[in-house]
UniProtKB/TrEMBL annotation:
PROSITE patterns per the UniProt record, alphabetical: DAGK
Protein name: Lipid kinase
Family as reported in the entry's similarity comment: Belongs to the diacylglycerol/lipid kinase family.
NCBIfam families found in the cross-reference section: PRK13057.1 (NF009604), YegS/Rv2252/BmrU family lipid kinase (TIGR00147)
Pfam family, one: DAGK_cat
DAGKc domain boundaries: 1-127
Keyword terms, alphabetized: ATP-binding, Kinase, Lipid biosynthesis, Lipid metabolism, Nucleotide-binding, Phospholipid biosynthesis, Phospholipid metabolism, Transferase
Length: 291
């Protein structure tokens, strides 16, 4: 059966331009009828998806987590299934879902995989796949250029983090759950929906993208150098067991700060505090490798 697919590729993604023709050939061999669209401005992807919502059976997105973040709201509204071609730098959503970075394998997953409904995070009206965070991660996002990511790949995240960590200063935040209020002096608060973020770090050891919960951690350190011993543990999420890390989970959180602070969703700055976070269970269907 021929499936009609809207193919959206971020040509500025690390491998976007170079691998576009290769992806098109693979998908056509797998019997997809493609409508190819691209734009210089990721915000226009929302309108493009709505334009084709009654003309296609699914949307295939080639790019990284930032490109996926740009399309997520339109996918929720149209309820079109998502196929992923991991062409970005970190590809954390693909990693969470077990989608191969091999282009032929990723195309095969879209053609022969199974549809799995996943949860989404939501903050101030914006959906996210992986994580929403404020503090240190925002400084990293602002410093991390496309050119630097294209040149150094995932290593760019680590290098940039080391460049900004020593300048980090704690800020005060109020974290509210359904029945408790915490005041924290912190350098970073992250609220995770998926498992991986930031180039392969785990939000907590047992996080899943369909567990219908959010996982929050707060790095409550006084001096920049205290974060250095935490970095190895952050690769597998075990930093949450350290004394200077607060860890919470639940379906909703609210965060307040004395002045508005930028919030990064899947690597893009999209909103500011005060912020309300919640999980949207089974919000979206994604093609993943068969179990």
């Amino acid at each position: 059966m021929t499936l009609r697919a809207l193919l959206l590729v971020n040509r500025h993604a690390r491998q976007g331009e170079a691998r576009l023709l290769q992806a098109i050939n693979y998908l056509k061999e797998l019997n997809f009828q493609l409508i190819e669209e691209s734009t210089e401005h990721p915000k226009q992807l929302y309108q493009i998806i709505h334009q084709y919502k009654n003309k296609v059976d699914l949307v295939i997105v080639g790019g990284g987590d930032g490109t996926l973040n740009a399309v997520v709201d339109a996918l929720v509204e149209t309820q079109l299934p998502l196929g992923i071609l991991p062409l970005g730098t970190a590809n954390d959503l693909a990693r969470t879902l077990g989608i191969s970075n091999s282009l032929p394998e990723a195309c095969k997953t879209i053609a022969q995989g199974e549809l799995r409904r996943i949860d989404l995070g939501w903050v101030n009206g914006k959906h996210f796949f992986n994580v929403a965070s404020l503090g240190l991660s925002v400084k990293i996002t602002r410093r991390l250029t496309k050119e630097f990511k294209r040149r150094w790949g995932v290593l760019a995240y680590a290098v940039t983090a080391l460049q900004v960590i020593w300048k980090s200063r704690p800020f005060t935040a109020e974290i509210r759950t359904k029945d408790r209020v915490f005041r924290a002096k912190t350098v970073q608060i992250a609220v995770g929906n998926g498992r991986y973020y930031g180039g392969g770090m785990a939000i907590v050891p047992d996080a899943r993208i369909d567990d219908q919960r959010l996982d929050l951690y707060s790095l409550e350190i006084s001096h920049w150098w205290e974060i250095i011993p935490l970095l190895p543990a952050m690769r597998n999420g075990r930093h949450i067991h350290r004394q200077n890390v607060r860890a919470l989970n639940g379906r909703e959180f609210e965060i307040y700060t004395s002045k508005p602070r930028a919030i990064n969703t899947d690597g893009e700055i999209t909103t500011y505090t005060p912020a309300r976070f919640c999980v949207i269970p089974k919000a979206l269907a994604v093609l993943v490798p068969p179990v």
